[in-house]
Structure formats: C-alpha cells, structure tokens
Amino acid sequence: MKGKWMVWPLALGMALALTACGNGGDDLKKDLVGSWSGQVDVMDQVVEGMRTSAPEIADELEMENFYIPLEIEFRDDDTFSMTVNQEKMDQSMDELIQKTVDATLAYMEQMLKDQGVTDMTVDEALAQSGMDRDSLTTMMKESLGTLSTTVAEEIQTEGQYRVDKDNIYTTDSVDQKPGDSGATPYTLDGNNLTMDFNDVELGEVTFTREG
C-alpha cells in the first residue's frame, strides 16, 4: 500500500497559506504575541487519498477524525514560527495505522464471505500469504509511519509577520519583511485565534492561547 498519498498536499497548503504579505499595527500585535495551539481535521482528505490506491480499505475505515496538531508562536520581534506537535501527531498516526489494519482485516473477512469461503478464517488467509496480524501491522507501520515526520517537516515555517484588524501577513523568511499583497484572514476573541485557511481547502482553524 502506498503511504505518502495522504497529507502532503495539506501540509504544503498550510505552509503556503502562511507565506503572504502586508501591513500591521503594534496594538493589534500585542494581542497576538504569544504561543497558540490548535488542530486541523484532514480525515476527508485522508480517505480521498486512500481511495486512489486502496479504495476497498477506505470503504472499511472506521475513523471519524485525523488531526494535525499545530503550534504557532508570534513573537514581539515580528517573527513567527509554525510547527507540528510531533508527539500528538505520532499518536494520531498510530491510531490511523491501527484503524487501517482493522479495515484491512474487515475487508478480507468480507471478501471471503463474498467468495463463498466458509472453511477459512482471516488469520488462515493471512497465513497463506506468510503473514499474521502482527506482521500486517508492521507492514502498515513501515508504509505509513514515516508520514508523520514528513508532514511535520513540510508544515514547519518560520518568518516575519504583520497584522491588521482583518488579516495576518507573513513571509517564509526571518530576514524578509511582509509586503502589501496577500493575507490570511483571522479573528481574535480573547484567548481564541481563528485563522481562515479556506484558500487551501482546510477551512477555519481555531487556536487557543497557551499559558
């Protein structure tokens, strides 16, 4: 099974969405400075990607959400960084791997029934292929396991920012100041920061102030 079909476009889109440009104000910046954490659910994109290489498994996948946990820090020196919480990302990936194994076993069981095979269990069918449940899980981990780190690397962004009352403008370099075009719309309500990533089909993501 191909493992790199799932979140790369989303990761790249998130990074691109934060490489915009613009003007800001010190008063607004004071409200923004600090560390923020949030998560974006890309389960629909995961299933859509899975259908390209394993549609039968996608149909059996019983998992409601797949979250990418994000952390953003806006600093007083006009720089910012966006990273993935690797520990939480690994937990999400571990759950996806287990759910994918479960979906594979469910598909195999249904396939045996559809073929009228009544004298063979899923474990026996796996054994005929020289596998068992543990080795199937290992195979899934090898196929999907590196995706967690790859997504984190693709999303990691650092640059300069400015803010006005409607938009956050950023660059992808700490040596480059934002210009005057492009923006990520946002709203700030106390300790909740909502950023609009609809231009990369991620919708609105709400971050909570840390500390």
Tell me about this structure:
The protein is of the alpha+beta class and 211 residues long. The protein has one domain. 42% of the residues lie in helices and 24% in strands. The protein contains eight helices and eight strands. Strands 1-2-3-4-5-6-7-8 form an eight-stranded antiparallel β-barrel. Helix 1 packs parallel to helix 8 and helix 5 crosses helix 8. The longest helix has 29 residues, at 86-114. The chain is elongated. It starts with 7 loop residues before the first helix and ends with a strand. Mean pLDDT is 84; it is low at 1-8.
Provide a quick synopsis of the model:
By secondary structure, the protein is of the alpha+beta class. The chain is built from eight helices and eight strands.
Properties at a glance:
alpha+beta, 8-stranded antiparallel beta barrel, 8 helices, disordered N terminus
Taking pLDDT < 50 over at least 5 consecutive residues as the criterion, the unreliable ranges are: 1-8
| Secondary structure tally, helices | 8
For the termini, the CA-CA separation is 42 Å
Strand content: 15-25%
Q: What's the number of extended β-strand segments?
A: 8
Q: How many discrete domains?
A: 1
Largest sheet: 8 strands, antiparallel, barrel
Name the helix and strand elements from N-terminus to C-terminus, one letter apiece: HHEHHEEHHHHEEEEE
Overall pLDDT, averaged?
84
- For the biggest β-sheet, the strand order reads 1-2-3-4-5-6-7-8
Give the overall shape.
elongated
Q: What would you report as the Rg, rounded to the nearest angstrom?
A: 21 Å
Helicity, in percent?
40-55%
Backbone structural class: alpha+beta
